[in-house]
Write a structure and sequence with these properties.
Layout (H helix, E strand, L loop, with lengths): L2 E8 L6 H15 L5 E4 L9 H6 L12 H6 L8 E3 L7 H6 L4 E4 L2 E3 L3 E6 L2 E6 L5 H4 L13 H4 L5 H8 L7 E4 L12 H7 L4 H6 L5 H10 L3 E4 L6 E5 L49 E2 L14 E2 L46 H4 E3 L25 E5 L10 E8 L10 E3 L1 H10 L17 E3 L4 E3 L2 H14 L72 H10 L4 H6 L1
Parallel strand pairs: 1-2, 2-3, 3-5, 7-8, 8-9, 9-14, 13-15
Antiparallel strand pairs: 1-15, 4-5, 6-7, 6-16, 10-14, 11-12, 17-18
Helix pairs in contact: 7-10, 12-13
């Protein structure tokens, strides 16, 4: 019989792990169904100390240590295996220590800037960050102490990560992102979305709501499920197998509509390069400073950033329509119980398996093309993508839901533990030499041919298979490889008993921008009063050597130029 997995999906975490886990345990008790995995769609905020807090991209008035450090030290342990992608409000220095992914605490795994994992027979892909035109093509130029714009740009998704994800050939069951795929609102109840978020109207009209990078990935990858957060609203959509959401391909996203043929491919690992500012490419007009509307109507968790107005894209999109994916959980009118009063926007027990279950079927994969080399597609014939976006963890918000996914017998054997994915390791071996380390536009290597109608830069199946053969022989020689439980703390933390509200003097009131109350003010985001107690002792390093990254790179046979440069 196929295995049924109960997968919990959470929108924006914002450091509220205690509340999220409390809700999951309450649901388990109510339904007598064990939650097998929790997926968090960004803004996790893995803050360990004052340096992490200083590197977090958010207005200073919101900076508080939060409760994550207790999970980092082992004082508390996640009761459910947890994986997450990064959002735009993270400690970027901590994320850089685990660029390829890794444990941020026991039982809590960061998927890296992009990545693919297996769990219980499911194949799960993830991509971190949000889309910004002016940083999308750049390499990873940011260096300690991560001041000014680089504090935000570390969380801006790069074309290099899209390039890696495009190489995926085998079907994915789930993709997790922080940003929505651009134009996905056209495939759900657009009118209902605009009633909740009327300030999205102009972006919807222009076809600019969401990330074109994620739309490009959705167009190619077509997973069974796609989960997102970021816009602080619950939304569902269904993207059909014959529909197209982004037909411009690789060159449909600025600046790749320009001619970059005279720019050499990035990727040289120059150990003498320390400032990351060589080869700067000026892309577009960056004179206009506007407040991004992509966080919330209150603009409380947004930072003013340089933003380039995107060119209007001519898309053959369907008109806005009403929601055609059944609501997984309707909690709008749910009365809080004594167990769920603090975060009532959580879950209910009235899940209907016939509405919320999907059957993972990888037998109808579309055939590869064969001229002159083969380029397989990860699409499963006839399979639609169910899209679900959730809110942030606050009372009266829809931020947490549980779905049931049936995994066929052929993929359901083995323990419910995270596993490495062979194809993804092969892709890392192919792409890692081209990891860009400065502000020059990333240019796909010549070995990656422009393929298919969308002219995607793809390595051939033969190239991927050569690396997959190496991975199979050297990593998977004994079958599946579980992710080792090799977490070790590498950074200092506050003394035990430090309140979540402590800001170490970094939080300051910066005016009354936005209509909402600030985190740490009564009734606001943090539900507690801010505490400005100073950090005691030496200030921690910006980047710590993490043995998880070292072990992973040795296993895969790659070098880690990014953190080597930052140490």
């Amino acid at each position: 019989m196929p295995r049924t997995l109960n997968i919990a999906i959470e929108g924006c975490c914002h450091g509220m792990l205690d509340n999220i886990y409390s809700q999951l345990l309450t649901r388990q008790k109510q339904t007598n169904k064990k939650i097998d995995l929790l997926i968090i769609c960004g803004d996790f905020q893995a803050i360990r100390n004052v340096t992490d807090l200083g590197c977090m991209s958010c207005p200073d008035k919101y900076k508080q240590i939060g409760g994550f450090y207790r999970y980092y030290t082992g004082e508390r342990v996640a009761p459910v295996p947890t994986i997450f992608v990064g959002g735009n409000h993270e400690a970027g220095n901590h994320s850089r220590e685990l660029y390829y992914g890794g444990w941020v605490a026991p039982n809590i795994y960061f998927m890296g800037n992009s990545g693919v994992l297996k769990f219980g027979g499911l194949r799960i892909g993830g991509i971190s960050g949000i889309f910004k035109d002016f940083d999308y093509a750049k390499g990873y130029y940011e260096r300690p102490p991560f001041r000014g714009h680089s504090r935000s740009s570390m969380h801006h998704a790069r074309s290099y990560e899209a390039f890696k994800m495009l190489q995926i050939r085998q079907p994915l069951d789930i993709v997790v992102s922080h940003d929505w795929p651009q134009n996905i609102e056209r495939y759900g109840d657009t009118d209902g979305l605009l009633k909740k978020k009327p300030f999205f109207e102009k972006e919807v009209e222009r076809g600019e709501l969401g990330s074109p990078l994620n739309a490009l990935l959705l167009e190619r990858l077509r997973p069974a499920w796609w989960f997102s957060a970021h816009l602080h609203v619950r939304f569902t959509a269904s993207f059909g197998p014959q529909e197209s959401i982004f037909t411009q391909g690789w060159k449909g996203i600025p600046p790749y509509e320009q001619d970059l043929s005279n720019v050499s491919a990035s990727g040289g690992f120059d150990a003498n390069q320390t400032d990351g500012m060589s080869g700067t490419a000026q892309i577009g007009n960056v004179d206009e400073i506007v407040m991004s509307s992509l966080s919330d109507e209150e603009a409380d968790l947004a930072e003013p950033e340089l933003e380039i107005k995107r060119p209007r894209m001519e898309l053959n999109l369907p008109p806005p329509k009403h929601d055609i994916l059944p609501a997984l959980i309707d909690i709008t009118d749910q009365e809080p119980t004594s167990e769920t009063r603090e975060c009532t926007g959580a879950v209910t027990s009235d899940l209907k398996q016939e509405e919320h279950s999907i059957q993972i079927d990888s037998t109808n994969i579309e055939p590869a093309t064969t001229s002159p080399a083969s380029y397989s597609t990860p699409r499963v014939s006839g399979r639609a993508t169910n899209f679900l976006a959730l809110d942030k963890c606050l009372p009266k918000r829809q931020f947490l839901e549980v779905i049931e996914i049936k995994v066929p017998d052929s993929a359901a054997d083995g323990e419910l533990k995270l596993e490495y994915d062979p194809e993804w390791l092969a892709i890392l071996r192919l792409c890692n030499p081209y990891l860009p380390l400065d502000e020059s536009p990333f240019v796909p290597p010549a070995q990656a041919q422009a393929c298919e109608a969308n002219q995607l830069p793809l390595f051939s199946d033969e190239q991927v298979d050569r690396e997959l053969e190496w991975v199979t022989k050297n990593v998977f020689r004994n079958g599946r490889v579980y992710v080792p439980s090799n977490f070790v703390p590498v950074a200092p933390v506050p003394p035990p008993g430090t309140p979540d509200s402590v800001s170490f003097g970094l939080a300051r009131n910066d005016g009354n921008r936005g209509r909402g109350r600030g985190r740490g003010q009564r009734g606001g985001y943090g539900h507690n009063q801010r505490n400005d107690a100073p950090w005691t002792g030496p200030r921690p390093y910006f980047i710590n050597a993490n043995p998880q990254t070292d072990d992973f790179c040795k296993m895969v046979g790659i070098i880690d130029p990014l953190t080597q440069l930052l140490r």
